[in-house]
User: Which sequence fits this backbone?
């Protein structure tokens, strides 16, 4: 019996060819592994048939965050090349970023469209705090996004291991993306087509909340005791209408890990906006979410630990092994799993 508090227990071998580097076309043709907890049964299906497996009395929540073109390339005043990934806005129009290339406090970075960034702080975790300027005028978040839309790149996850393309601007964005702020897509939602969403809306209704997915979602757990992992935080918002739906829901389907964490943070803190730093794992199980739609996640990640918070470590590893044997595609552009 593996110890669910040890990071090494969440390791598994994935053949490299099963890492999806592009999405299924059409999106709803992705595979869907359905695990029914009551019956302890596994069904292999296609995502477009998901309605066949959803319980009748269900309230569904999705994340309407929008991925921004957060990856930009520039240079230092010395001419040395630099790559910057915007993570999230902070207070007073400062921003948390990751930078590839050596910088120190006071370094000025130069980008296209007369965009510059000044390094204000160097954090121990490798992140940096910067301010952005265009034509020497300090930028707020919405003004920065306008510039990024012109010069930035879609920040594909590192394991996709290729440069972004024009197609990724559509493929790595949900159909209902609305609020700028994410640097990673809520990928369980990438499988929906317009027609499928309309069918689900007609039968169940759809509810939207916002959690701006940060780069921390890819941060590996690098301590052996999972409870010692410093969980990243991400900004979230729940509207009054959405809050009412949560409060009145009997059965909740969270579409994705980001929605799950937002709902469960609300259940614990009764907050409808702020920074969510909830770490769900088998020692901290869901309180209100009882159905989960998600993709297949990285070994030893907080995301696979979240899945284990629903069904336990042993069952999670068993389902992952079955998915690998049945040639499911993994990670952001990969196939899906429904836990009911």
Assistant:
């Amino acid at each position: 019996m593996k110890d669910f508090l040890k990071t090494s227990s969440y390791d598994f071998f994935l053949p490299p060819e099963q890492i999806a580097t592009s999405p299924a076309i059409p999106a709803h043709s992705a595979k869907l592994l359905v695990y029914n907890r009551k019956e302890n049964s596994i069904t292999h299906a296609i995502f477009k048939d998901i309605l066949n497996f959803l319980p009748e009395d269900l309230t569904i929540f999705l994340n309407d965050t929008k991925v921004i073109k957060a990856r930009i390339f520039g240079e230092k005043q010395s001419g040395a090349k630099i790559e910057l990934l915007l993570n999230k806005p902070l207070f007073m129009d400062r921003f948390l970023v990751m930078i590839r290339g050596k910088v120190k406090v006071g370094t000025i970075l130069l980008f296209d469209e007369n965009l510059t960034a000044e390094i204000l702080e160097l954090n121990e975790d490798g992140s940096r705090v910067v301010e952005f300027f265009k034509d020497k005028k300090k930028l707020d978040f919405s003004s920065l996004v306008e510039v990024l839309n012109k010069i930035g790149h879609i920040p594909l996850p590192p394991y996709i291991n290729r440069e972004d393309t024009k197609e990724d601007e559509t493929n790595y964005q949900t159909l209902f993306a609305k609020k700028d702020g994410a640097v990673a897509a809520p990928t369980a939602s990438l499988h929906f087509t317009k027609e499928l969403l309309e069918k689900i809306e007609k039968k169940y209704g759809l509810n939207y909340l916002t959690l701006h997915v940060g780069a921390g979602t890819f941060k590996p757990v690098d301590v052996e005791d999972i409870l010692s992992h410093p969980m990243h935080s991400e900004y979230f918002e729940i509207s009054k209408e959405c809050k009412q739906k949560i409060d009145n829901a009997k059965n909740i389907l969270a579409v994705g890990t980001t929605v799950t964490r937002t709902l469960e943070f609300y259940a614990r803190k009764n907050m409808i906006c702020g920074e969510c730093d909830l770490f769900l794992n088998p020692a901290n199980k869901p309180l209100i979410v009882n159905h989960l739609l998600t993709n297949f996640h990285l070994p030893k990640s907080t995301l696979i630990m979240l899945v284990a918070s629903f069904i336990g470590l042993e069952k999670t590893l068993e389902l992952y092994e079955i998915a690998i044997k049945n040639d499911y595609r993994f990670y952001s552009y990969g196939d899906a799993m429904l836990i009911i």
The chain has two domains: 7-67+169-339, 71-152. Residues 257-269 form the longest helix (13 residues). The first strand starts at residue 31 and ends at 36.
